[in-house]
């Protein structure tokens, strides 16, 4: 089977500092892979490379069999959800959901159809005419996910989407994201430093440290057979 994402010998330097070190990663079609590791280990940098938000130093990135190493973000068939929501404050929820589609000159009835579908899936229908300031953190994050959803992309990238939320909302949205994945069946790469999130969401977890993937395995294997002391200590100790 063709991989959804293939990262080949990816190196990224910020000046003299090497942040990603000849990193390799294959993600299967429809797979949910979590990038887990302590702050500063390069998780966001890797995700931003996949999204095309950073120019890489060396290596290749393939998405759905296409070499996208130098492709624009909008040409990669990916949707990204950030921790900070990044919603437009002056626009309604409907405006936020449809903005990118309008820019791409999609016909209005197709935009309406996609917005209605995303609103139904994420249960934000009653919020469509509100502005972000009138939403809770959890609702804002649903809208942020909706913005990726309306683009109808094959690959979702999440960068710590739940870390601004309180514990109760976090576990609620965790369930929601799992359900979303089951329903859409698309490929997801999800960054977190939260072990519980990784263990509950992932098909496979990539444990990172210092720009290197230390172990890439199913949650059970990571938990029961850690490859080294770092993995054992990191997954074993609650954050
Ligand atoms: P994580 O998401 O795992 O917390 P990051 O990918 O954000 O880690 O950062 C990895 C390393 O790269 C850190 O040491 C960070 O300080 C460094 N870094 C991130 N962005 C930049 C940048 N724009 N310029 C220089 N160094 C950076
Ligand atoms: Mg980060």
UniProtKB/TrEMBL annotation:
Full-sequence portion shown in this chain: 1 to 239 of 359
Family (UniProt): Belongs to the ABC transporter superfamily.
Organism phylogeny: Bacteria, Pseudomonadati, Pseudomonadota, Alphaproteobacteria, Rhodobacterales
Gene that this polypeptide is encoded by: ugpC
Keyword flag Nucleotide-binding: yes
Record-given protein name: Sn-glycerol-3-phosphate ABC transporter ATP-binding protein UgpC
A GO term for molecular function: ATP binding
Span of domain ABC transporter: 5-235
Keywords: ATP-binding, Nucleotide-binding, Transport
Source organism, top-level taxon: Bacteria
